[in-house]
């Protein structure tokens, strides 16, 4: 393995879980910083209902202001036909549909049963593809649900197969509340990989219990080559109690580069983005690598920025 693709979800998964609502121009500056750091895949926002996630209510405005750069692709969550109409009027490059492997979280998150959700997503995928857009799928609560606990892997397999049949090109497996451990990731992937090829799967690990990085490592060992991360370790689903940050992109980049695996992302430049975000949201971010880089800068007199 020589290279891993990191999908940077901080602008979406990170900011959706913050009480501070950042202005559009700050989000645009974050995107500029991410591009300077070499990030190519940026999940920038969501076309969900603005009342459900007010932090991302500026989705269309932000999409219109994002810096365009060769090779950089912007993504956004699209929950339904209304969200698709909003997204299609913007220059966002590709979309992601999402649902949960557990009934209760699906209902709390998108106000529908799982069975009611399939036709909604199928319509989004079909119309998006007709408009020339690729669509990714997310399955949430793959490794456990905040309301129901364990989720049968057979349910995850069925859901992934349905999403592939709809036409999604990749499925990101969400450990929404960060309950997974390496044994669970391995057991789940062993079953899933009998049905879905590794190149169509991605890992989306939240770090609620400090296991995200080790889970990412196990998925790499099992053949996964795309991992989601959020700058500084921001993140969490507002409709999943107890969910906290994603694996920090800084921690992923540091770890992968030390293992001799390229990410194309420059760690120090990325840390500068997170330093700005810390100032904007008024608290230190959780990434250990970020905090150690900041400490090193201070000790060599480079300051925080
Ligand atoms: P609903 O209230 O059931 O929607 O919400 P509805 O279809 O009944 O429509 C009600 C009204 O909302 C209508 O307006 C619609 O037009 C409007 P009215 O006719 O009453 O004036 N409406 C919309 N307006 C703007 N944009 C839309 C939209 N849809 C309907 N897209 C809905 C259903 C899905 C919209 C809502 O439940 C919602 O927005 N949920 C999103 C929750 C969310 O964003 N959660 C976090 C993202 S998922 C996540 O974080 C997990 C992930 O990271 C992976 C992991 O970690 O596991 C991806
Ligand atoms: Mg998430």
TrEMBL record:
<feature type="domain" description="Pyruvate carboxyltransferase">
    <location>
        <begin position="4"/>
        <end position="271"/>
    </location>
</feature>
<dbReference type="Pfam" id="PF00682">
    <property type="entry name" value="HMGL-like"/>
</dbReference>
<dbReference type="GO" id="GO:0006552">
    <property type="term" value="P:L-leucine catabolic process"/>
</dbReference>
<keyword id="KW-0808">Transferase</keyword>
<comment type="similarity">
    <text>Belongs to the alpha-IPM synthase/homocitrate synthase family.</text>
</comment>
<dbReference type="InterPro" id="IPR000891">
    <property type="entry name" value="PYR_CT"/>
</dbReference>
<protein>
    <submittedName>
        <fullName>Hydroxymethylglutaryl-CoA lyase YngG</fullName>
    </submittedName>
</protein>
<keyword id="KW-0456">Lyase</keyword>
<comment type="similarity">
    <text>Belongs to the HMG-CoA lyase family.</text>
</comment>
<dbReference type="InterPro" id="IPR002034">
    <property type="entry name" value="AIPM/Hcit_synth_CS"/>
</dbReference>
<dbReference type="GO" id="GO:0046912">
    <property type="term" value="F:acyltransferase activity, acyl groups converted into alkyl on transfer"/>
</dbReference>
<keyword id="KW-0479">Metal-binding</keyword>
<dbReference type="InterPro" id="IPR013785">
    <property type="entry name" value="Aldolase_TIM"/>
</dbReference>
<dbReference type="InterPro" id="IPR043594">
    <property type="entry name" value="HMGL"/>
</dbReference>
<dbReference type="GO" id="GO:0046951">
    <property type="term" value="P:ketone body biosynthetic process"/>
</dbReference>
<dbReference type="GO" id="GO:0004419">
    <property type="term" value="F:hydroxymethylglutaryl-CoA lyase activity"/>
</dbReference>
<dbReference type="GO" id="GO:0046872">
    <property type="term" value="F:metal ion binding"/>
</dbReference>
């Amino acid at each position: 393995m020589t290279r891993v693709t990191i999908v940077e979800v901080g602008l979406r998964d990170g900011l959706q879980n913050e009480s501070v609502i950042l202005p559009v121009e700050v989000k645009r500056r974050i995107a500029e910083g991410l591009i300077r750091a070499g990030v190519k895949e940026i999940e920038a926002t969501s076309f969900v209902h603005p009342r459900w996630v007010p932090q991302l209510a500026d989705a269309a405005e932000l999409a219109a202001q994002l810096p365009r750069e060769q090779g950089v692709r912007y993504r956004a969550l699209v929950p339904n036909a209304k969200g698709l109409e909003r997204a299609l009027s913007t220059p966002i490059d590709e979309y992601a549909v999402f649902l949960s492997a557990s009934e209760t979280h699906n209902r709390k998150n998108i106000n529908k049963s799982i069975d009611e959700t399939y036709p909604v997503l199928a319509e989004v995928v079909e119309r998006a593809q007709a408009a020339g857009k690729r669509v990714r799928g997310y399955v949430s609560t793959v490794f456990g649900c905040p309301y129901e606990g364990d989720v049968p892997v057979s349910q995850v397999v069925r859901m992934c197969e349905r999403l592939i049949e709809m036409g999604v090109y990749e499925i990101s497996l969400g450990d929404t509340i960060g309950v997974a451990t390496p044994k669970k990731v391995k057991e789940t992937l062993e079953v899933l990989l009998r049905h879905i090829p590794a190149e169509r799967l991605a890992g989306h690990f939240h770090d609620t219990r400090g296991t995200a990085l080790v889970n990412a490592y196990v998925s790499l060992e099992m053949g996964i080559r795309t991992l989601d991360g959020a700058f500084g370790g921001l993140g969490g689903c507002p409709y999943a109690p107890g969910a906290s940050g994603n694996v920090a992109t800084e921690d992923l980049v540091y770890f992968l580069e030390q293992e001799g695996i390229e990410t194309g992302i420059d760690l120090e430049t990325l840390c500068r983005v997170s330093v700005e975000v810390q100032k904007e949201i008024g608290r230190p971010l959780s990434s250990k690598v970020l905090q150690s880089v900041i400490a090193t800068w201070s000790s060599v007199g480079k300051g925080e920025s």
